[in-house]
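[09:14] KT: can someone run the structure on this one? pasting the chain below
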Amino acid sequence: MDIKHMRYFAAIVRHGSMTEASNQLYISQPTISKAIHDVETELGMQLFDRNRRKFVLTDAGKVFYDQCEEILRRHSELKNDLKNMVGMRQGEIKIGLPPIMDVGRLMGIVKDFHALYPEITFQLIESGSGTIETRLRQDAIDIGITVLPTEGEDFDAFNFLTEPMKLVVHKDHPLAGEDSIDLKALKDEHFIMFNEDFYLNEIITSACKNAGFTPKVVSNTAQWHFIEEMINAELGVCILPESVAALLKSSSVTVDIHEPVLKWRLGVIWNRDRYMNFITKEWLKFFQQYYE
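[09:31] RB: done, structure tokens below
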């Protein structure tokens, strides 16, 4: 068995058929069929359930596929990693980040890192924390920036930002003149919230329930810019991290939340037991040193 056999097998699983896999790989179907047969003979077990119309993995096939994906990923990155280790600092870092953050801080780090490694590029992918964790598990991104703590135990992380969350209201709102409020004072307010994919939604909802009420949600969104416009239109109130609330350039004001004090913890996360390429290790080390 060699890397070619694993590539053929993974292609069949991804494309759902041997015919489509052979088309994508530009090789004959008998060649792929023989390769799979050779692998099954070597392993002494079937990888596909051939009693069904479609290719369905057996339990052994599922385990073999996971291992193939890991080996193929390492194989594809080997050349770049060797180049990096001898001084050719090239490649791309894919970072998942939430829309709910002061991106200016991140851009400062990216700028300084780029000055050291000008051949390294960044792909920044915005999404909620739940999606970021999923993409990390799927190896669709290298690093995630998300709310801590994470849902799973399969990530390593470090916290780089902890700050209070603030109530944001229109300047003409009755609470706009208050220095601070208790959360229970918002039981009759209409809330502008982020989508359920955002852990901020869960933090606020849970805190409100502990204060004795369920928030009345007037709108859900994935962009804090839309929240800003809805506050301008006096559609409701919102709770945001202090640094994000400070970015609002509207007719809104912020009010401290005294009881309970809501904290926002932002961190960098990565897969604990997965292979990490040289470039990503350098970025992670640089990020940690930057905040230390």
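[09:33] KT: thanks! The radius of gyration is 25 Å.
[09:34] RB: yep, looked fine to me
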